[in-house]
Structure formats: C-alpha cells, structure tokens
C-alpha cells in the first residue's frame, strides 16, 4: 500500500518525537539524577556537566554541532536536517520536563536508563535521524580510512569511559559501561526487530522430498536454483535443485529435524540475514497450518 508524502512525513516525525520522549525519560528520570553516563556525545555532555554548571540541554547541542557539520560530508542532507531537529527537540524536552527520580538502585538505573535511551535512539535511527553524533563520526572514519563503524564507536567510548574512571570513579565508569551495553543492545533490537532470520541453502540428492516437506511442515517459501553439476561425498551428480530459503531462527531445529529425517547426509549452509522484506515476513505474521506455498 502506497502512502502519501504527507502521511510519510507525519509518520516519520511522529515516531522521531516518540524516540525523543523515550530518550529524555532515560536521561532525566534515570541517568542524570544519579550521575551515570552513556556513550557517544550524550556521554561527553553528561561527563562535562559534572564539572561545569551548564544545563545538559545546552551541552547536548554544543557537542553535537561538530558531528552535524561532519554529517554534511558523510551522509545525506535530509538525515542531517532530521538529526538537527531531533537533537534540538531532545534538548528542549530535557530542559523543560521535570521527572522525579524513580529509583536509587544503581543496577536498575543502569538497566532502565539504558533501555529507555536505547529505544529512543533506535526509533530515531529507523526513521532516518540520529540523537547521538558519534554514529556520524563512525561513518566518516569508515569512509576515509576503512575502519568499521562499530570499531570507531567502541574506541570512542573506551576513551570516554577511561576518562570517567580517572576523573570521577571506577564504580561510575563500570555502571556507565553497563548502561552503554544495554543502550547499544536495545538500539539494535529496535532497529532490526526481535525476529531473527536465518538464510539456509540445502544441497541434497533427495531435494524433491525436502522441498515438499519444508512447504508442508514449515510453510515457508523458497527459491530453487538449478545445479548442473556437483562433486560431493556421493561422487559426481548432475541436474539437481539447490534449495534456498529464509526462516525464523526459532524454526531452525525443526528445519534440521525435517532434513535429517529425509537425508542425514544433506549439505546445509546457514548464514545470518540482516534484513528481510516481502513474502517470508507476511508468512510469519499470517501463519496458516499446512498452507501450500508456490515454488519460485
């Protein structure tokens, strides 16, 4: 279903607004009152705030400016504009909201502060915006020097948390690392979703039986490649189907049981799938028992 530009615009900015609210709750209700840090620009702002009497909302904008300028040379201007709007909105929300401290338990503060902050950052990223400029730094360094984005952000945060341990305390640094881990994991889950898909390639001399069994018992679609010639433990073979499918990770054991029951010598390759769009998703959302799916 196609939506109008107005609908897409309102949907994107509405979700970004939700992300801003969640991130601000994580900061104002959990991390700020207890002096805990997160990684990235947010962490720098929180660290500096412990030494200077400047509101965190001002520091967030101030420390984000260099990364946003960098963003004009690394990502699209649309992303930079969305990020400017998001960061200003987050700063305003933190400046004017007044949440009461929910708990004094340090472990709960780290976990739930990271959970709210990670959910907010993840929702913003899913809609083409960033609430933290360190991701833009990662993209820039990756483009110039070939270092992975994850390694850049990790190195950035190692320096940040080392400074925290030195100038504040080791305990605060350790709790801040826990907050960062929770934030990063929740951000990934929000961006990628909770369903984890696996790509499977199957080569078997009993491919026809496996095809029918997968369709009947798992109900997932598949793509069949024509193998013209192959050499394996059963010698040379010609003219056979290579089965390729995408399934949910929770169905992997069932998939193996189906294949082993038919051909315990089948050659199986599994690989992680970062993103899936189309029929397999519709299948898992609208699963019908023994539904006959067409081969492609």
TrEMBL record:
It is found in: Cell membrane. Pfam families: DUF2179, YitT_membrane. PANTHER family: UPF0750 MEMBRANE PROTEIN YITT-RELATED (PTHR33545), UPF0750 MEMBRANE PROTEIN YQFU (PTHR33545:SF3). It comes from the Bacteria. The chain crosses the membrane at residues 16-36, 56-73, 79-96, 108-125, 145-168. This is YitT family protein. The keyword RNA-binding does not apply. Residues 221-278 form the DUF2179 domain. Keywords: Cell membrane, Membrane, Transmembrane, Transmembrane helix. It is a multi-pass membrane protein. It comes from Winogradskyella pelagia.
């Amino acid at each position: 279903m196609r939506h109008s530009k107005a609908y897409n615009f309102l949907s994107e900015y509405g979700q970004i607004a939700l992300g801003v609210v969640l991130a601000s709750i994580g900061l104002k209700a959990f991390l700020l009152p207890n002096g805990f840090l997160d990684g990235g620009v947010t962490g720098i702002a929180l660290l500096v705030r412990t030494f200077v009497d400047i509101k965190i909302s001002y520091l967030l904008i101030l420390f984000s400016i260099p990364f946003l300028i960098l963003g004009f040379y690394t990502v699209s201007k649309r992303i930079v504009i969305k990020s400017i709007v998001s960061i200003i909105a987050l700063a305003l929300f933190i400046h004017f909201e007044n949440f009461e401290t929910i708990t004094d338990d340090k472990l709960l503060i780290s976990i739930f502060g990271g959970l709210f902050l990670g959910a907010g950052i993840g929702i913003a990223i899913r809609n083409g915006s960033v609430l933290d400029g360190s991701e833009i730094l990662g993209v820039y360094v990756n483009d110039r020097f070939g270092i992975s984005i994850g390694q850049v952000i990790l190195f950035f945060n190692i320096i940040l948390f080392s400074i925290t341990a030195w100038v504040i305390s080791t305990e605060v640094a350790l709790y801040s690392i826990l907050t960062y881990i929770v934030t990063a994991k929740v951000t990934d889950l929000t961006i990628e979703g909770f369903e984890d898909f696996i790509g499977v390639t199957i080569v078997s001399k009993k491919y026809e039986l496996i095809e029918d069994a997968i369709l009947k018992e798992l109900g997932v679609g598949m793509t069949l490649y024509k193998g013209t010639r192959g050499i394996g433990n059963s010698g040379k073979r010609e003219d056979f189907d290579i089965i390729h499918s995408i399934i949910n990770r929770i169905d992997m054991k069932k998939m193996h049981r189906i294949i082993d029951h038919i051909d315990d010598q089948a050659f199986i390759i599994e690989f992680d799938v970062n993103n899936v769009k189309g029929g397999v998703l519709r299948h898992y959302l609208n699963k019908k028992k023994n539904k006959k799916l067409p081969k492609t």
